[in-house]
Amino acid sequence: MYFRQAQAALPYQDRSEMATSIPTIPSDNELDWESHRQRFPILKNKTYLNSCAYGALATDVITALHQYIDDRLVKGTDWDYWVKQNETVRSAVANLLGAKDDEIAVTTSASAGINSVASALDFASEDNRNKVVISDFEFPTNAQIWYAQERRGAKVKRVAEKDGYIPIEHFADAIDEQTKIVAVTQVCFRNGARLDIPAIAEIAKQKGALMLVDGYQGLGTVQFDVNEVKPDFVVGGMVKYLLGTAGIGFLYAREGLIEKLTPTVTGWFAQRDIFAMNTKSYDPSPSARRFEMGTPPIPNCYAAAAGLKVLDSTGLPAIERRIGELGNAIIQEAERAGYTLATPKQSGRRAALITLRTHDEQQLVGRLDAAGIVTSCRFNNIRIAPHFYNNLNDIDTLFRELSRHKHLLT
Ligand SMILES: Cc1ncc(COP(=O)(O)O)c(C=O)c1O
Fold first, then answer.
1. Burial class of 100 by CB neighbour count within 10 A (0 to 12, 13 to 18, 19+)
2. Alpha carbons 305 and 85: distance in angstroms, whole number
3. How far is the CA of 336 from the centre of ligand 1 (A)?
4. Which fold has domain 316-408?
5. Looking at the predicted structure, is the pLDDT value of residue 17 above 80?
6. Which of 79, 126, 198, 248 is most exposed, with the fewest beta carbons within 10 Å of its own?
7. Would you put residue 372 in left (φ > 0), alpha (ψ -120 to 50) or beta?
């Protein structure tokens, strides 16, 4: 209601059309996937298969970002209102993970969450645990931050991949009574392999180690409930499958653990009472807010809340099924054409990202881009990353174009 008044007051915008053109989302059992596509204007111009890097921009997110500007112009300074945007994101992330609001820190990146957790760990403590177990599949940030802890007494153990996957036995061999934390990615950003996170979490628990999951490449495409998997921490961010924007992320921290950990990377938004303006001591919040730092990324909160709402209204079970179907189609087409998959074929070992081996990934991504097909690459893999807004025509278009560049594929 307030937004409508603000719209009328502002001369530069005419978003009434945009707001009414957002299609009604059908219920889970009668999903009309084509209607979802209209929410993502880029799909009119591009075959967009790069959600592992950047999710497609939804009209809902565009509207939310405009609303941020409206609110600033109309409200001036309304600190409580901005803080409310942050809390909306906190609740939406809690909802995504099956967590409580108090278990969620809203951060500016996945790195910020990992750093905050790392800062709270004592690697020289009497429990004799200074080992950090990571894997060959980590996104650089979840390796670099832990290697940085070696200056504080940590010893990093990197679990090796074998033939494009990391068997659970490799984790079982690495995690032991000296392990302080196991910090692993849910899905590998390079080849799309999905690790068996519940099994790794179980091993970590048996050995008395903490468990942190980097869910950035998986959350929003596959269901993940902290009550089932029981990790201690989960980090992620909003720029990819969660449909928000860059510059905002989150950390889940398990309820019973939060008050036992005192981050030494901190800031005023991590305090028990933010507005106490206390300059005499450090008094961390009893909730996961203690893992936050400074002023929240408010514009990004608007975008993130809108993106998460799109996901929630579509429904993750349906999204997961849809992504599974699209992944199957990609694999089928790749095998028919004789291309080499870098992603495991088994459905439980992959999420949305499917990768193919190439001789020249930059050239191939460039050629596809010239044909209006957006993909990306890492090392010698081309990354094909659909979301629920893609369809089988997109896959067809991609493989038709790939067949023109067979020489670049292995
Ligand atoms: C698995 C994974 N973790 C983390 C990140 C990024 O983390 P941050 O939010 O710190 O930039 C990415 C991609 O950007 C990723 O793919």
1. middle
2. 8
3. 33
4. Aspartate Aminotransferase, domain 1 (3.90.1150)
5. no
6. 126
7. left
Give me the residue spans of the domains in the chain: 81-311, 316-408
User: Over pLDDT 70: what percentage of the chain?
Assistant: 92
pLDDT tens, residue by residue, 299-336: 999 999 999 999 999 999 999 999 999 999 999 999 99
Cβ–ligand 1 contact at 215 (below 6 Å): no
Contact 113, 90 (CB under 8 A): no
Residue 114 alpha carbon, nearest atom of ligand 1: 10
What sign does the dihedral 72-78-83-89 (CA atoms) show?
Answer: negative
Q: pLDDT band for position 31 (50/70/90)?
A: low
Q: Is 141 in the pocket of ligand 1 (CB under 6 A)?
A: yes
Of the residues 216, 238, 240, which should be mutated to test ligand 1's pocket, given the most ligand atoms within 8 Å of the CB? Answer: 216
- The pTM (predicted TM-score) of the whole model is 0.92
The phi, psi pair for 69, rounded to 5°, reads -65, -45
Tell me the average pLDDT of the chain. 92
The yes or no reply on domain 81-311 and CATH 3.40.640.10 is yes
